[in-house]
Amino acid sequence: MTGTRVFVARLTGSGVFDPAGDRLGRIRDVLVVYRKDNAPRVVGLLAELPGKRRVFISIGRVSSIGSGQVITTGPISDRKFEQRGGEVRLLAEFLGRKVTFNDGSGEGIIEDASIEETGPGEWEINQLFVRRPRQSGAPFAKGPTALVPWSLVTEKTNDGESQSAEALIASYSELRPADLATTLLDLPQERMLEVAEELPDDRLADVLEEMDESDQVEIMSQLDDERAADVLDEMEPDDAADLIAQLPEERGEHLLELMEPEEADDVRLLLSFGADTAGGLMTPEPIILSAESTVAEGLAMIRRNETAPALAAAVCITLPPYEAPTGRFLGMVHFQRMLRYPPHERLGALIDPGLEPISVDTPAPEVSRILASYNLVSVPVIDENHRLVGVVTVDDVLDYLLPDDWRSHDDDETETAPNKRTPKKRPVKKSAAPAAKPASRGRRG
User: Fold this and answer.
1) From CA 421, how far away is CA 400, in angstroms rounded?
2) How high is the pLDDT of residue 345?
3) Quick one: which of 21, 66, 88, 407 is 20 to 30 A from 312 by CA?
4) Contact at 8 Å (CB) between 295 and 343?
């Protein structure tokens, strides 16, 4: 017995390497099978290869686990992962289960599990990290924890009782939204919806933005209207508009009524344009300043943590009001230009004279051509009155150009050529553009 021991929650995200040290992918879960008289035995690892392909690595092909990495005995099969009957995924299905202590001292919830190497190519669950019920009435108090051997507890399973998702969410806390979205979609449906219910509004919003629209609709259909509206408030307006457009019209309108008025106005504006136009692609929350603002003020705006990199590449200069739809659009100032001038310099003197705005009805292919031809990260969008209504960023265009199923694309499936892309189907709602709004915005600043 080697005694090597690894906690499963800490294993997720670890790199997978071949004997030569080349990175193959990263770990997403551990699979075990139950045994009658002994602790569950590890049968393999669920790994994610480049391109988000999920594959199974037999535990017999693993030479070592530890120090944030897994080393295999050689190349691994790229066959798409399919969970077999009797296999249990520790992160997705095991953490959060209830256990009772065999000594009669009560029960607890599994927050982590350690697996131990018992021989060459043989691993099993060794200990469980269990949290007992809290003993204090304080609202934020937590119960005591214990690290107990598998043999000293028994799983408690009641028919119809859903398992807690808190431990699973905690184990995924370090994942980026795109990775968490992929991970959730790989869970059993019931477990996926349970975890989605428990995620904070802003975290769930970030995750939904990384999913295909069909998956977004599936999750949103399980949320009550109040929660769904709160999540939509946290989403970027263009993503929220795309999602609402896929919902039944009656529910979509009801959710718009429940959203914060300022957020709903942004979404209604986007819904009034075709999805394949600049108005449908744009982000209606660019950085907007006056011509009298200084370089110091401009740099302070783009330094904010919540500002997306593409939006931080430039600031828009307009006449008042300074909230889209603004007063007359004057031009843009790129952040690199601001860096070349002293802090007190007026932004109005630094406007790029060669950058022309585009209209809301500019076709998406033309928007793509403009960004590519002039090496732009973003381009301003104006209405018929020359008011700034938003900007189209390079990531907006990439989302348009990529196939609709790019997030779930498998290497062995036929690729969709860019010129064969099916345009998004967003119904155009004939609602008037919202009136100018006050300059302060609570959520995104």
Assistant:
1) 9
2) 96
3) 407
4) yes
